[in-house]
Write a structure and sequence with these properties.
Layout: E1 2-6, H1 10-22, E2 26-31, H2 34-43, E3 48-52, H3 62-73, E4 78-83, H4 88-97, E5 102-106, H5 113-124, E6 128-130, H6 132-144, H7 153-163, H8 168-175, H9 179-193, H10 201-212
Parallel strand pairs: 1-2, 1-3, 3-4, 4-5, 5-6
Helix pairs in contact: 2-3, 6-7, 7-9, 8-9
Amino acid sequence: MRVIVAEDSVIMREGLCRLLEDAGITVAGRAGDAPTLLAQVERGEPDVVLTDIRMPPTHTDEGLRAAREIRDRHPGVGVLILSQYLETTTALRALSRHPRGLGYLLKERIADVGQLIEAIGRVAAGGSVIDPQVVATLLGRRRTAGALDELTARERTVLGLMAEGRSNDAIAQRLGVGGKTVETYVRNIFMKLCLEQNLVDHRRVLAVLAYLGQ
């Protein structure tokens, strides 16, 4: 797998590259700003781009805008957006346009190499990835309004895993239950939250996040 890393902090960028290389992933390019990132993607289309949200010159949303352009021009390239801070609005906005092959993780997840590599693999395969803390925050926000009160504790757990972008099989493995059991949980969740059933994973994520982000 070929990955381009875009991060303006040299220490963070080189650290990420070292982690990826140690995991057997080819680092196809390094960028410290959005224009360099876009040029590198044009020169040699990678499998995945890892990009910080905030990059020079304004350190606002250059990375996010670059991610959108990459997804527009190179739909086969997965993009994993990294953020120093929890920004639920940014996460929802990022996924609303190109849910397939797009992910949003907090930088603190980098310490868990296995989780980082798993997220890269999922966006490379066209899946969606949402940081668990974003999901937990959205779930908590909706619960204060009483919207999720009808869900059982296990259904809320399944909902959180769904919103992270995990398939029914992945949820079953995480919870140690059978696939049919997860299907039942999912049907109950859709019914209780009045969400239309949809077998396409990334659309399911969008539906759940749209509900949670209201």
